Amino acid sequence: MFVRTASAEFFSQILNLHRTVTILFAAIFLVAASLGQASANSRYAAYVMDAKTGKVLFSSNADSRRYPASLTKMMTLYLLFEGMKEGRYKSSSRIPVSARAAAEPPTKLGVKAGGSITVEHAIKALITRSANDISTAVAEFVGGSEQAFARMMTAKARQLGMTNTQYRNAHGLPNTEQYTTARDQAILGIALREHFPQYYTYFSTRSFKFGKQTINSHNRLLGKLQGTDGIKTGYTRASGFNIVTSVQRDGRSVVAVVMGGKSAASRDQHVAALIRDHFPQASRRGGGNLVSAPRPAPRAQEVAAASIALPRRDIPVPSLRPDGEVDMQVAAYIQTQTPPAVAAAAAAMPSRVTPPAAVPVPTASPASDDRFAVDSMSTASIQTSGWAVQIASSTSQKEALAALVRAGKNASGIVSDANAFIEEFNNKGTLYYRARFGFSSKNQAVNACSALKKQKIDCFTSAL
């Protein structure tokens, strides 16, 4: 049984519902550069670096430009950490949330315009929920405006040796002038570890409380892949599924990057396989920091040159419109009225369910070392614990989606804060799609189901 969630890292995130072939690590990555085959995935790139010596342990398309998606928030956090280290603000300092920030599309924390959030909660919201509204609030807080902050981000990237990265926003939502490379993201991951050891532990946050919400992390490698201590996942349709992950154990340390994955599950399986294959090659001895010690954070007036557009090449063309069979009336309704969680589900629906092609992955056997094995669930905002209210079960993913949309329309006050998702279930060879809303407690689920029944919506509750 594979859970596929619809509370994603971007409003148009794909909800990948095809069955994962775990024995092949859901083989959808094409490591063609190393195997001499033509690549079928123009977005794919990967890079594994020994974080103690700087030795490159694996590289494929490492210097080809790619969209960072929510990996962007790593640099947003870098500049926020830098301000804390310099004493310009504390973890208890409050960040105001402007109307512009509050209006950002999901995934978001949902702080209303005119409200505020502490620096510490902002950090956790960026790391776990990948909140776009809080990213913009941080940009305005640190840089004065998101545009000025983006210039600071680009200038800082140059200071760190990220020579092929350019930022235009603080969250990673689509912008054709915002790009990076797998190598540059590895450099940034190592810089975060080396320069801010006092804050780096935030990246291990699996969940945190914010008001009545329990915010769970998108990064399911935490606790699943031994030695993993962060760092960040990301997704837009143009970028595919991205991840930067850090693994430290047995005196060794690596940072691995995978970009352009076809699903969150296969991305995680692929990065786990890369680490399993190459981690033993990492040294237990190191020669000090790999990334130059940071200089003071650049101010907006110091980075005007960073706003100059650099030549663009090797960048995949964005495809931001749904390309499938979601009913046009449903799609129109989604854009204007549906609660964010359900809207994300609908915008994310794939056009059709097709089995993944079997393509090469790193050669180590899945059973060769269970320290580097992960399960096959999707990692994108997954509902991994708590209680579910199920409102429908159908052999049609479209019908399951429609049930979520109807519930969102007719009972928005009941499910507006729930995590809408579709669960794939195989019963005697028949694949069913369960339309569900996730809640953090049994009482919340029971109360929600009772309220839904009063609205003539059949439902039942179950533990996850």
UniProtKB/TrEMBL annotation:
<feature type="domain" description="SPOR">
    <location>
        <begin position="381"/>
        <end position="464"/>
    </location>
</feature>
<dbReference type="InterPro" id="IPR018044">
    <property type="entry name" value="Peptidase_S11"/>
</dbReference>
<keyword id="KW-0378">Hydrolase</keyword>
<dbReference type="Pfam" id="PF00768">
    <property type="entry name" value="Peptidase_S11"/>
</dbReference>
<dbReference type="Pfam" id="PF05036">
    <property type="entry name" value="SPOR"/>
</dbReference>
<dbReference type="InterPro" id="IPR001967">
    <property type="entry name" value="Peptidase_S11_N"/>
</dbReference>
<comment type="similarity">
    <text>Belongs to the peptidase S11 family.</text>
</comment>
<keyword id="KW-0961">Cell wall biogenesis/degradation</keyword>
<dbReference type="InterPro" id="IPR007730">
    <property type="entry name" value="SPOR-like_dom"/>
</dbReference>
<protein>
    <submittedName>
        <fullName>Serine hydrolase</fullName>
    </submittedName>
</protein>
<keyword id="KW-0133">Cell shape</keyword>
<keyword id="KW-0573">Peptidoglycan synthesis</keyword>
<dbReference type="InterPro" id="IPR012338">
    <property type="entry name" value="Beta-lactam/transpept-like"/>
</dbReference>
<dbReference type="GO" id="GO:0016787">
    <property type="term" value="F:hydrolase activity"/>
</dbReference>
<keyword id="KW-0732">Signal</keyword>
<dbReference type="InterPro" id="IPR036680">
    <property type="entry name" value="SPOR-like_sf"/>
</dbReference>
